[in-house]
Amino acid sequence: FIGAGEMIELCAAHFAAQNPKSITIANRTMERGESLATRLNGRAIRLADLPEQLARFDIVVSCTASTLPLIGLGLVERAIKA
């Protein structure tokens, strides 16, 4: 999950109820990401680490206040190749 706001929290809570193998929260601030990850028995990573980590995930849900896309075509293509 990318972000740690209300919408991601709602989505992640529904996802966590299905007992996934793991949950990762990527957020700009580690404190807020870790807070949400702890409530969901997951882990947090820095948003800046997402380009190196994206290939590890089967599902990505993003909801942030950013006015620019955080995941571009190039990042997705590199993750798929990896």
Describe the protein's architecture and organization.
With 82 residues, this protein is mainly alpha-helical. The chain contains 4 helices and 2 strands, in the order H-E-H-E-H-H. The protein is globular and about 30 Å long. A two-stranded parallel ribbon has the order 1-2.
Record the SSE blueprint.
Blueprint: H1 6-16, E1 24-27, H2 30-39, E2 43-46, H3 50-53, H4 73-81
Parallel strand pairs: 1-2
Keywords:
single chain; 82 residues; mainly alpha; 4 helices
Strand content: 5-15%
Count helical runs: 4
Taken in chain order, the helices and strands follow as HEHEHH
Mean pLDDT: 95
Radius of gyration: 12 Å
Q: Give the strand tally.
A: 2
Helix content: 40-55%
Low-pLDDT runs of 5+ residues are none
Q: Structural class, from secondary structure content?
A: mainly alpha
| Overall outline | globular
The strand order across the widest sheet is 1-2
Biggest sheet, in brief?
2 strands, parallel
- The termini sit apart by 20 Å
In short:
With 82 residues, this protein is mainly alpha-helical. It contains 4 helices and 2 strands; from the N terminus they run αβαβαα.
